[in-house]
Write a structure and sequence with these properties.
Layout (H helix, E strand, L loop, with lengths): L20 H8 L3 E5 L2 E4 L1 H20 L3 E2 L5 E3 H7 L1 H4 L5 E4 L5 E4 L4 H9 L10 E10 L14 E11 L2 H21 L5 E4 L10 E7 L5 E5 L6 E3 L20 E4 L6 H8 L7 E8 L2 E8 L6 H8 L4 E3 L2 H8 L15 E5 L8 E4 L5 E6 L10 E2 L18 E15 L1 H5 L4 E2 L5 E2 L2 E8 H11 L1 E2 L2 E2 L10 E5 L4 H16 L4 E4 L5 H11 L3 E5 L1 H6 L1 E6 L5 E5 H20 L1
The structure holds zinc ion (ZN).
Length: 573
């Protein structure tokens, strides 16, 4: 491809709305253009990369035995109603109506659509195991789209769904996908951190996210460098220490605390650290009020609480509901009460001596509160968020935190969709049974952007050979028609050998061409200039290492082939 005949609108300046490297560089290198908030156009060079990532995903999915489908992106509301998610998906799901007022969702995910399709296609245990997938557009009504294609309203996902006869089969399918995902990301030269994840609303039993460490990551990972434990913060467990406080028990006393409600207010008022408080928060879990009690220096982990309660929905109770169940306005709830309310205590609460907590009475707190004496720990669970420095649940060493972006996610769905949507097959005995499902996603655009996040420098992108838009970029520095013809000859030689080559034949300064070549990040650059016209020497320069060498025209092709193979092997082997 010749740049003079190509669309490659490189920019010197960063786009004003880009805060992250991938967004900045993908726009500047002419890979994408913003169409409107959260929507992007892939220009020819960006599309080439996207297609290469897609090809790797497809190749590895096919190798795993999965079968490719192409599903409608508009999915009928009826399917979502069958699973019950029409009401629970929330405002992130785009919903539309046709002229006959039939309702549809622009699919954010395809569990329902695939379960329904498979329901009509299989009937016997002989049809299983089955893993079906597609590479298709997904939609999400992002409240605040940002980071370029990292968080957009429309994106391309590979989503796969496995169907097995039993848990053993599901585990085999899950492990196959685990392996496949590792291969896919490796081939894209993307270093991922697989972490245990909360299964949350998807309602499964085991789940792993493939995270890319990044400062802009919206998820926090807890990592134990000693034993390798990795989990996202929603899921991360930690060893709850028992404080070394051995002071004698004080009597329970009510203290007037007018308008002292928050933990910050309380630490000032009582002149003590937040760990002495028993923070008591009232939630509504599937319509019932419950009180969660945690130490004042800890945040409640609503995912853990929700899982512990096995609740489908959990939200903070309204002020009026809090007042109704505790007898006091918000800010004065506590576990010392005769009222009947289900309480869940974090595992650390039992270690608090002479604690302070709301007295369930306006403007009043109790001091000298001791678990066991003043209230009973009826129900105990780990319901707090693990933080930097917390002790690893596996080995007890202090953990660190890292921010991460999810590029892939695999999980065991269980029977949620096969049961709610009545998918059955006949087992060996002719009895109708529900297959057990797994579900596996990869964000394709996100993977591409994450590669840019990991592989760039201050000059631009540094594409890995496996997904680069072009393998070779020729910078021609010709002053005469004769020299231009000599450059073109090199270009044609490369092209005829099947090498993906981009020729910069624009009539601009060499400096401009070199800067653009570094910005767009093609792995191999060949300079055809004075040295060639006079001495038959071509310069090969590697974008990744900055190393250069000179070769003659006769040796050029063999050397380029060798480098392409080496650079591919570095990634794939
Ligand atoms: Zn550990």
């Amino acid at each position: 491809m010749k740049i003079s005949r190509y669309i490659l609108p490189t920019l010197k300046e960063d786009p004003s709305d880009a805060t992250v490297a991938s967004h900045r560089l993908m726009v500047r290198a002419g890979l994408i253009r913003k169409e409107s908030a959260g929507m992007y156009i892939y220009l020819p060079m960006g599309l080439k990369v996207l297609q290469k990532v897609t090809a790797i995903v497809r190749e590895e999915m096919n190798r795993s035995g999965a079968l490719e489908f192409l599903m409608p992106e508009m999915t009928s509301a009826e399917l979502w109603k069958e699973s019950g998610r029409w009401n629970t998906m929330g405002p992130e799901m785009f919903r539309i109506k046709d002229r006959n007022t039939m309702e549809y969702a622009l699919a954010p995910t395809h569990e329902e659509a695939f379960t329904s399709a498979v329901r009509s296609l299989i009937s016997s245990y002989r049809d299983l195991p089955l893993n079906v997938y597609q590479i298709n557009t997904k939609f999400r009504d992002e409240i605040r789209p940002r980071f370029g294609v990292m968080r957009s309203k429309e994106f391309i996902m590979k989503d796969a769904y496995s169907f097995d006869m039993d848990e053993k089969g599901l585990d085999d399918s899950y492990q196959t996908m685990r392996k496949t995902y590792r291969t896919i990301f490796k081939r894209c030269n993307l270093e991922t951190i697989p972490v245990e994840a909360d299964t949350g609303a998807m309602g499964g039993s085991q789940s792993e996210e493939f995270m890319v460490a990044s400062e802009i990551g919206e998820e926090v990972l807890l990592i134990c460098e000693a034993c390798g434990y990795k989990a996202n913060q929603e899921k991360a467990e930690y060893q709850h220490g028992v404080p070394g406080n051995t002071e004698p028990e004080a009597p329970l006393a009510a203290v007037d605390t007018p308008d002292v409600r928050t933990i910050d207010d309380l630490t000032v008022f009582f002149k003590c650290g937040p760990e002495r408080f028993m923070k008591s928060i009232v939630y509504t879990a599937d319509g019932t009020q419950i009180m969660a009690v945690v130490p004042g220096n800890r945040e409640i982990n609503e995912h853990k609480l929700k899982n512990h309660l096995r609740a489908a929905e959990l939200e903070l109770s309204s002020d009026s509901a809090v007042e109704e169940v505790t007898g006091a306005p918000v800010g004065f709830a506590g576990p010392v009460t005769d009222r009947k309310i289900r309480m869940v205590f974090d595992t650390s609460v039992k270690g608090i001596i002479n604690g302070i907590t709301g007295a369930n009475k306006k403007d009043t707190h109790y001091t000298g509160v001791n678990p066991g004496r003043d209230f009973t720990i009826t129900e105990e669970a780990d319901i707090t968020i693990a933080e930097e420095g917390d002790l690893c649940p596996q080995c007890g060493k202090a953990m660190i935190t890292r921010k991460g972006i999810e590029v892939g996610h695999i999980f065991k769905l269980g029977y949620k969709y096969s049961k709610s949507m009545s998918l059955t097959v006949l087992d060996r005995n002719g009895k109708a049974v529900h297959p057990i499902m797994g579900c596996y996603g990869i964000g394709v655009n996100r993977t591409m952007a994450a590669v840019v996040e990991q592989h760039h420098d201050d000059k631009g992108i540094v594409w890995p050979m496996t997904i680069t838009p072009f393998q070779v970029c020729i910078v021609g520095i010709a002053k005469t028609d004769e020299e231009a013809a000599a450059v073109e000859e090199i270009y044609t030689m490369m092209k005829d050998a099947g090498i993906e080559v981009l020729l910069d034949d624009r009539k601009v300064s060499p400096g401009f061409k070199f800067a653009d070549a570094e910005l767009i990040g093609i792995p191999i650059r060949i300079t055809v200039g004075k040295n060639y016209f006079n001495n038959n020497e071509l310069e090969i320069k590697m974008r990744r290492t900055g190393e250069s060498e000179n070769v003659t025209k006769g040796n050029l092709l063999a050397r380029i082939m060798e480098i392409i193979k080496q650079e591919t092997d570095i990634i794939e082997k």
